[in-house]
Design a protein that fits this description.
Layout (H helix, E strand, L loop, with lengths): L2 H16 L2 H10 L4 H4 L4 E2 L2 E2 H7 L3 H11 L3 E4 L10 E4 L2
Helix pairs in contact: 1-2, 4-5
Length: about 90
């Protein structure tokens, strides 16, 4: 991994564990972090980022990233003409 990327992700993990919303938002803006792309995949000390913040009692930060914590995609067949439309869930 590129050292700059690694240092950026370490800074994000530290900001998330701090439970200081201003510090966390400042890190997100300064490193230009896309929350929807990073938070479902980011792992800090072997835990997902959301679980990492919860285990560090950073409830304010955990509340901010909760919508991004788990990726969930729903696919509906719009061309299906039957009574019930099947719903396919894809989780990654």
């Amino acid at each position: 991994m590129d050292p700059n990327v690694e240092n950026t992700l370490i800074a994000v993990c530290k900001a998330g564990a701090s439970n200081k919303v201003f510090q966390f938002n400042d890190a997100m803006k300064s490193y230009r972090i896309n929350k929807a792309r990073i938070f479902p995949r980011l792992v800090c000390y072997g835990e997902s980022f959301h679980q990492f913040t919860l285990s560090r009692n950073a409830d304010k930060t955990a509340r901010l990233i909760a919508p991004y914590a788990e990726a969930h995609v729903s696919i509906r067949d719009l061309a299906y003409l039957g009574e019930t439309q099947p719903l396919y869930d894809v989780r990654y």
